[in-house]
Amino acid sequence: MTEPTTHRLTWNDLPESVRARVGDVLGAPVRAHRSAHGGFSPSTAELVTARNGRTAFVKAVTARINAGSMRLNLQEAGNLERITPEVPAARLIASFSEGPWFVLMIEAVEGSLPTLPWRPSVLDAVLETLDVLQREATPSPLPSAPSVPDLIGEDLRGFERVHADPPADLDPWIRARIGDLATAGTDGIASLDGDTLCHTDLRADNLLVRADGSVVIVDWAWAGRGSRVADALQLLASVDDADGALDVDARIDALMDRHGASRSDATDVLAGILGFFVDASRWDIDPSLPTLGEHRRSSRDQLLPMVRRRWEREGRP
């Protein structure tokens, strides 16, 4: 599982040779550029326009700046080359290496990130888009992609690590049932298996909403094969619904019912995601990703009440 930050390179950080190559692909030099916000990687996130009017979204990074981001960009290029047109994704225009830089050029989508806090209508539109994704991409057009359990299974074992080495400030409700929460997280991993194309890293900053309300999914580095509900559960786990206005809990139950899946499986997955954030809240922070610590703590604190409500409603000890 990855997490958002806004510490990014910009267009002006790229060497002239890279900027020239981008212009060559577009058929004319770049005349305008604008930085996008959000996301995990320090890689550029630039919307560029060439003198001939062609546009692209440009992601570029070097291994020296962040080897993990370089690897993810390479993965995303391979995934986008194979994703079929029916998938609601931004398309790959080109990818290339220029010296130590690896560059992705992706279709520039006329849209914006969902406004936070979420509006109910936008959340509904995103969930409908995920239903389209599972209809159009089952079986997965990326049959060699790793399974969702393989991609994020270790992350969802966070409560096992917390059980083995609990922090002093562990929430009392968690401390009292840490063994059962660890078991739930493990059970949740198994329930995420399947043959649907999954984004596997779905949050608000990986979505673009067009003016007509349609939704495009971006940042496909973590594409995998999983259950029909895997992406929607990961998204809903990230939605802050402290006042209950979005009724996320009920949306999760409706999702599971719609796909013939057990509501308790959802609780297991959510427990696993919570375990990831409880464990990750005590990790050291990479200086190149300065907002990570606060994100981990806030994600932990907003998800705990929902897991607790579901746990108690299901009569778990």
Automatic annotation (TrEMBL):
Superkingdom of source: Bacteria
InterPro entries in alphabetical order: Aminoglycoside_PTrfase, Kinase-like_dom_sf, Prot_kinase_dom, Tyr_kinase_AS
Pfam families recorded: APH (PF01636)
Coiled-coil region(s): none
Domain Protein kinase, chain residue ranges per copy: 29-317
Protein name: Phosphotransferase
